[in-house]
Amino acid sequence: MQAQSGPKQWLTLVWLVVLVGAPVRVDATGILWSKHKPTPESLVKEKTLKRVREGSASVTNANWNDSDDFTFLSSTLVRTPLRFARPHVVDPNFYARLTDAIKKLTYDPRTKTAEIIGEAGGLTMHSWLKMDDRLWDEVHFTIIKGDLKGMRIRTYLWEESGKTLIIGKGELKNARSKFGGLVARVLPTVAEVVIDVATGRFRGYIEEEYQKKRL
Questions:
Q1: If you count Cβ atoms within 10 Å of the first and of the last residue's Cβ in the chain, which end, N or C, has fewer?
Q2: CATH numbers and ranges of domains, the chain
Q3: Given CA atoms 131, 134, 199, 74 in this order, what sign does their dihedral have?
Q4: Parallel, antiparallel, or unpaired: how do β-strands 70-78 and 24-26 relate?
């Protein structure tokens, strides 16, 4: 991103800060950074985070919590700088290449909304996913229509020694009552498999592309 200068550009940045509605930090190039992003340690268990940071595993956990909410947490370390990894995080069309579970994805860059048709483990999904990528190190996704409507996913990014730690946290409140007994039982397992496979491919593809750029 080019450095911005002049009253008009900085007024635009002020407007964006207000629009985002969250405390942010604006650096010298005009990039918006989250000021209240949680720490990795507050999201992921110590042993799991150690495995992820060592690059030995991408880890996904999905479950029903005590309040009837469906949640998942996915962590991975991409061995590229943040500036290289992030454009892939905010490219919905890229995700369609990562998992066979996505049968069709149509993205409208004007509204930053993707229509997704998917199927995995006997479960089908037809949803509209909206992306908010105004912050450089914190990207929000919300299913605004269709199956799993109301699910929110927060994707957090940190650069650590030239690598990118990515943690995604998803939540759908009061979800169990929306599904039949069978679906409720298999959903966490199906979600873990689909997300874990996609995360592994995501990491591998970005690292491969990065190595090509360096040759």
A1: C
A2: 1-35 (no CATH), 37-214 (3.30.530.20)
A3: negative
A4: unpaired
